[in-house]
Design goal:
Length: 375
């Protein structure tokens, strides 16, 4: 027990997390000054399950009926005929061409029939369009609500208009009730995403998103403990804004509103670049790396915070490349095609004679409609 306490004391040393000559007692919450309380970091965990409950309630009683009203299908019309031999091959997850040949001989089928059965069987396991529509509805609803709430509560805060106020008099920054709810609600949402990601529609960027959620939670926790809530609230505001249009574009795509989808996606692309590649690095990260050292004495945690901020920027750069790549293809094709972020993951790596994929996953924003060659 003493070893654990020594490690904890060393890890949470004020020499690491606070500016020189500042102790934890100096920023401990009291009746006069409501500084961030590290004990409150436990609240987002139960709040995450509350959000999950709200999500599934809205999906069942609001989003799903709305989707059906828009004629979005809840299931796929075609299903593979039950076949015990092919089912065992499908469950093995990796069906190569030699196995397809063997299955065709065993069942007295053509190779094309076996490939078609495997495609249909994979299609059955994919989430329905209505399921993906409901998921996008929930995220769009949350991001829009969080962004609007953030704008309202930060509108009268001086650091929204002059970012240097994030560092003046640091670390003596009390946390108001509205900022407290903004922080706790945002952390709860990212905790909920981290939990639900394992049983939601699985995307090709699964691990990038998981790293993004964990990095965001870590950044928020450290900024809360270190009383860096002002710059943290600005990071949240910038991140929530573009995601509204991404989810709205996906909703339009699932509802077969192609022109609406194209317009929203075009606006999303511009807004994403402006906020994630423009405002975020040149306003927020610039202030933390260039302006902050001029106002606040440097301390070790400063480098931890900036490392996490730069990690998020690195993820933004990857996603921006993918978005621009798909936007370019969409412009050439004349319309945005397929799922707006990435199709559900498909672990089966079937190949035909010339190593032509039987089934291709989508890219970040669209999925090619080119049909596989059958031999």
């Amino acid at each position: 027990m003493s070893i654990f306490l020594n490690i904890s004391a060393a890890f949470w040393s004020p020499k690491i997390w606070l500016p020189p000559n500042i102790t934890w007692e100096d920023i401990s919450p009291n009746a006069d000054n409501k500084y961030a309380n590290y004990q409150h970091l436990i609240f987002p965990l139960p709040m995450a399950f509350v959000l999950l409950g709200i999500r599934y309630t809205l999906e069942r009683y609001c989003f799903a009926p709305f989707g059906r009203f828009l004629s979005i299908k809840n299931s796929r019309s075609k299903k593979a005929v039950a076949n015990e031999i092919l089912e065992k091959a499908y469950l093995s997850k990796k069906t190569k061409y030699k196995q397809i040949l063997g299955l065709a001989k065993q069942l007295d089928w053509s190779e094309r029939q076996v490939e078609r059965w495997l495609r249909l069987r994979r299609s059955q396991d994919k989430p329905s369009t209505l399921t993906k529509f409901c998921e996008s509805c929930w995220r769009c609803f949350y991001y829009a609500s969080a962004f609007c709430y953030g704008v309202v509560i930060l509108w009268d805060k001086p650091w929204l208009w002059d970012i240097n106020h994030c560092y003046y008099d640091y670390p003596y920054h009390p946390v108001t009730n509205d900022v407290w709810w903004y922080y706790m609600g945002s952390m709860a949402f990212y905790w909920a995403l981290s939990f639900s990601q394992f049983f939601d529609v699985k995307r090709k960027d699964f691990w990038q998103m998981f790293i993004h959620h964990i990095a965001t939670i870590s950044l928020m926790c450290f900024s809360w403990v270190g009383n860096l809530t002002r710059i943290g609230s600005l990071v949240l505001l910038v991140h929530d804004s573009a995601d509204i249009f991404l989810e709205a574009a996906k909703m339009a795509k699932y509802a077969n509103c192609q022109k609406v989808c194209d317009c929203i996606f075009a606006f999303f692309t511009l807004f994403w670049i402006a906020t994630r590649i423009g405002v975020y690095p040149f306003w927020i990260i610039y202030s933390t790396t260039v302006q902050a050292p001029k106002i606040v004495p440097m301390f070790p945690a400063y480098y931890i915070f900036n490392s996490l901020l730069i990690l998020l920027l690195f993820l933004h750069a990857i996603w921006t490349y993918l978005i621009l790549k798909i936007a370019y293809r969409a412009c050439n094709a004349g319309q945005m095609e397929g799922d707006i972020r990435s199709n559900s993951s498909d672990e089966v790596s079937d190949t035909s004679v010339n190593n032509t994929p039987i089934n291709s996953n989508a890219n970040y924003v669209n999925k090619s409609n080119s049909k596989p060659k059958n031999h």
